[in-house]
Design goal:
Elements lengths: L1 H7 L17 H8 L17 H13 L1
Length: about 60
Amino acid sequence: NSDYEAKRHKSIALEMPHILVLPEQSFNHWLREKGKLGGQHKVPRLNNDRKIVEEIKAQVYSTY
């Protein structure tokens, strides 16, 4: 959308995203650990809190 494009232009308001590639099934393993894997559970909503990201990263780094 135009608002996003305007904020991205020359990194005025938004920096380029940092992408961390995780092993396959990392998110599913995290959901299973939380008891949330399966058809009757919703995927957690996105927000500005890094709690979920840090939990998944910690799980991946402790596994591999």
